[in-house]
Structures are given as structure tokens and as C-alpha cells.
Description:
The protein has helices at about 10-25, 30-35, 40-45, 55, 60-70, 80-90, 100-110, 115-135, 140-165, 170-205. By secondary structure, the protein is mostly helical. The protein has 2 domains: about 1-55, Orthogonal Bundle (Arc Repressor Mutant, subunit A); about 60-205, Tetracycline Repressor, domain 2. Helix 6 crosses helix 9. The radius of gyration is 21 Å and the shape is elongated. It starts with 7 loop residues before the first helix and ends with a helix. Keywords: DNA-binding, Transcription, Transcription regulation. InterPro entries: DNA-bd_HTH_TetR-type_CS, Homeodomain-like_sf, HTH-type_TetR-like_transc_reg, HTH_TetR.
Amino acid sequence: MSRWEPGAAERLRAAAxxxxxxxxxxxxxxxxxxxxxxxxxxxxxxxxxxxxxVLFAHEAALPGLMTRFFADAPPGLTPMEVxxxxxxxxxxxxxxxxxxxxxxxxxxVLSDEGLRERDLRxxxxxxxxxxxxxxxxxxxxxxxxxxxxxxxxIIDTAAHRWLDDDTDxxxxxxxxxxxxxxxxxxxxxxxxxxxxxxxxxxKAGA
Length: 206
């Protein structure tokens, strides 16, 4: 068997997802995955550290991608513009065309507590990369932290909305829509809070 057999990672991932759905994540072993894929365990471990990484390996590069975009983005962009353009340019293309398999992946992750915790860790890593990136762009620690949390919230929310959508909308469209909705909520709430403060002050002065 060829050492660098084309498509091995994809075959292993597809076989693993099928087995996870059929038997549950905890019950499936690496030899079962490789047998289903028609490959060897040695080939499996060339591509994945363990069976969990079959579900998360394709996301391992996301923090690095975001860090790179923060460094390369034009200095005049607002934090939200950096978030939206970064997610649409670097992250969205990694989702398009994979909706069916990502739906299965989500089903498997939600079925196992350990996998749910691992998924939360992924979000934390994205946020950490965002904090560093925004600090490098000149934001103070609090602003950088809030902006990074916004980025993690947008990608997480947009991903779930995109997976739940039965149309062929590109992931980038859902990201932009989600970011616009979040901006609207923040703006409306800020306006409402400010109005309340002004009203209270007016009553106090009456």
C-alpha cells in the first residue's frame, strides 16, 4: 500500500463518522475505523493523533488563520470589519461544500460530553488568538478581549445557522448576516440604556 495514498485522510474521516453514528463515539476503535476505510492503523496515525482529532483536525488551523489575518488586515479597519472580513475570507471557504459531513460531525459532538468540552476548547483557542491579534492592532486589553469574544460568538452562531439552513447559501453570507444582527442588537441596547440614563437624570432634576 502506498505510503502517501491519495485521499487517505478523507477516507478515514468518512469511515469514522459513519461508525460514530452507527455505534456511538465511545464504542468505536481506531482499528475499526481503518478497517472500514480499507487502510492501516499506521496510516491513521500519520493523519490523526487519536480518534477525537478526526472530528477536530480540520479546525486546528483556525486560530492561526485568524492571527495571520489580524496581522495582514489594513490598519484603517474597525474591529468588527476585521472580524467579518477575516471570517469571510479565511474561515468560510473551509466550510463550503462540507455541510453534510459537518452536520454529522455536529451530531456526534453533541452526543458525547467529552467531545462537547473539546469543542468549547476550540472556541477558547479562537478567542485567545483574537485577543493577541487585536492587542497587536493597538486595542487595550479589555477592548481586545471583547472583540475576540465577538469573533468567537459570530463564527459559532453563524456555523450553527448555516448547518441548520437547507438552502445553498454560502457560509460567508451567513457570517455577514450574523455580524449585522449582532451589531444591531448592541446598538439598540446601547441606545436603550442611554435613553434610560437620560430619562432618570431628567426625573432627578425635575
